[in-house]
Amino acid sequence: MIHIMSRNKINLIGIVTITLSFCVLLFFATKNSNYYDEYTKKENINSFRHNKLKNNYYYSSESQQQQLVTQNLSVTIEDVLNFQRQQLADEMQYYEYPNGRFGVDAKNLRDLTPETGGAPMRSVIISTWRSGSTFLGDVLNALPGNYYHYEPLLTYDIVQIRGPPNDSKAIKSLKKLLRCDYTNMQEYLEFGQTHNYLFTHNTRLWNQCHLFPNFCYQPKFLEPYCKLFPLQSMKVVRLRLKIAARLLEDTSLNVRILLLIRDPRGFLQSRKHRVWCPGNADCDNPNIVCKDLVSDYKAAEKLAKKYPMTFKAVRYEDLSLSPYDMTQEVLQFYGLAFDDRVAEFLDTHTKQNVGGVSSTFRDSKSAPFHWTKELPYNEIQYIQDSCKLAMKLWGYKEASNASELLKNFNPLLPFPEFN
Ligand SMILES: *[C@@H]1O[C@H](CO)[C@@H](O)[C@H](O)[C@H]1NC(C)=O
Ligand SMILES: *[C@@H]1O[C@H](CO)[C@@H](O)[C@H](O)[C@H]1NC(C)=O
Ligand SMILES: *[C@@H]1O[C@H](CO)[C@@H](O)[C@H](O)[C@H]1NC(C)=O
Q1: Which residues does the UniProt record annotate as the domain Sulfotransferase (predicted)?
Q2: How far apart are the C-alpha atoms of 203 and 144, rounded to whole Å?
């Protein structure tokens, strides 16, 4: 009798705690969502709903787990790990392992999961704001078994890291995350608790976070959870390539870096409409952002020679015009299979416009070129004057007058050959 009563009491405390932490989480999420309007809750709900509808697999496993939770409040971290381990085994069942292709030996799940001493495929995207990295990040996350380290440098706000004093700290954090080491990452984890978009893009983590918010930001959960995953992706928009190159120098990290470039006229036009950008020189000043593009080019030239297998650069415009071919090329570079689930993602995300400003559902053939119609010609001229070298190096053509832009202006020159 006493035993049953104390058990009920514990359950009650459990319910109250979980409900309270959920409310606190919701409160902060709502409070802060205005700041980065591109990550509105509405959009997260849309993409979540989309996943549910598109993917019966997630749907069924999730409701299955919901049952587990509502029926039993004494679920432990170990239970969640066991559940996810089984999920991953199912998800990876039909995955095509590299088995020697693209310079990767891995033949099965154990060869890739850190918890079994395997070396995961580590795929990093280096880019800058409004350059298509959300889209490409979601392409990688459409692969089965992927754990997505989304924008780990969000805590640095709207700045670029080009050198001291923040570069070593930033690189150290990225390396730790890529190794699933969440110790001494308080700043990052505290930021996540009040800005849930740090984790929502990592769908396979968020599935558990919204069921078990009490585990979500604890290193003792995150570390073993992360180590279950055979594919690890990361996208970063606040670190310039010459600094990110340090990840390649550390060969034990086994990482591949893709630099994603966009026409400065395109990203500057897009940034004008984001509340967090205007007024931050690293984001809205054409001279500064185009110096970054030049610096990235110089770094890319060196890296392409030094690390032909583990470094590659692509343009967002080329990716958008040929999403299937370019995605195939990108995945091949990363040593990843072009899985059916990626094809399905492209089918549903490149053919029509759905959702808000940061929605990745776009008509991909027109999305990169909106600026030709929407940016006033005097602003285009100002950007072109500030960005002459950057545009020349990356193969973007200047418009010579306003009327040229009205006639299906093609801003693309051949992409630079680095090798
Ligand atoms: C609740 O979950 C725990 C841990 O998985 C298990 O040992 C226990 O038997 C479960 N209780 C019920 C009532 O299902
Ligand atoms: C980056 O460096 C500056 C100057 O030292 C410092 O004020 C700032 O707090 C640093 N940012 C982070 C996120 O550490
Ligand atoms: C605009 O530029 C194009 C390409 O240089 C040129 O062919 C055209 O004559 C120009 N039009 C006007 C109105 O200057």
Answers
A1: 123-389
A2: 11
| Cβ of 79 less than 6 Å from ligand 1 | yes
| 229, 146 contact by CB (below 8 A) | yes
What type of residue sits at position 118? Answer: G
Cα–ligand 1 centroid distance for 72 (angstroms): 6
Query: For the whole model, what pTM was predicted?
Result: 0.82
Q: Which atom of ligand 1 is nearest to the CA of 73?
A: 1
Using CA positions, which residue lies closest to atom 1 of ligand 1? 72
Q: What is the domain partition of the chain in residue ranges?
A: 1-111, 113-180+227-406
Question: Could you say which residues of the chain have pLDDT below 70?
Answer: 1-73, 352-362, 419
380-389 pLDDT tens trace? 999 999 999 9
**Does residue 400 line the site of ligand 3, with CB under 6 A?**
yes
Q: Are strands 146-150 and 255-261 parallel, antiparallel or unpaired?
A: unpaired
pLDDT of residue 20: 44
Q: Tell me the CA–centroid distance for residue 406 and ligand 3, in Å.
A: 11
Main-chain dihedrals φ then ψ at residue 277, nearest 5 degrees: -90, -55
